[in-house]
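Ops channel
N.P.: pipeline sanity check, posting one input/output pair.
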């Protein structure tokens, strides 16, 4: 009987946590959508639940992490079809070299994609509004730096 009650309690807690996570996801989506629309962008929710928008003719994403409401990430993803191990290693080295020189942007290789992101934490989840344009500039600059270094050799 006690095991059954413990199981039901655990099941209830899991269900409640999932509901809260979905609430946080919707809250962040609405916050990001509202801001982007006010700033003249045409955002939409993608299949993963992230907010996708276009900036300077390129797709960007505001990723949603419902487990950490204060986390903010702008990401630009570029498909890079590499089959040679030497090319993959070169891409990873370029990513590493750019990332180690930057303060808040990261460049990394993941599943045949180059990810460039600006990742920040705010005590208030509205904090992104004051730095959004600067974060976009930094993200785009880091992406351009990857492209330049990739084309050099």
């Amino acid at each position: 009987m006690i095991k059954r009650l413990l199981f039901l309690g655990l099941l209830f807690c899991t269900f409640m946590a999932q509901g809260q996570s979905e609430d946080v996801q919707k809250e962040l989506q609405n916050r990001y959508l509202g801001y982007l629309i006010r700033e003249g962008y045409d955002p939409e929710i993608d299949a993963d639940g992230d907010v996708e928008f276009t900036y300077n003719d390129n797709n960007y994403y505001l990723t949603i992490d419902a487990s950490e409401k204060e986390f903010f990430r702008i990401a630009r993803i570029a498909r890079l079809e590499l089959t040679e191990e030497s090319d993959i290693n070169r891409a990873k080295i370029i990513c590493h070299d750019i990332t180690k020189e930057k303060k808040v942007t990261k460049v990394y290789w993941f599943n045949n994609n180059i990810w460039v992101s600006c990742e920040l934490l705010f005590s208030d989840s509205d904090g992104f509004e004051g730095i959004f344009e600067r974060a976009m500039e930094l993200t785009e600059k880091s992406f351009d730096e990857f492209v330049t270094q990739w084309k050099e050799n």
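N.P.: looks fine end to end. The longest strand covers residues 71-79.
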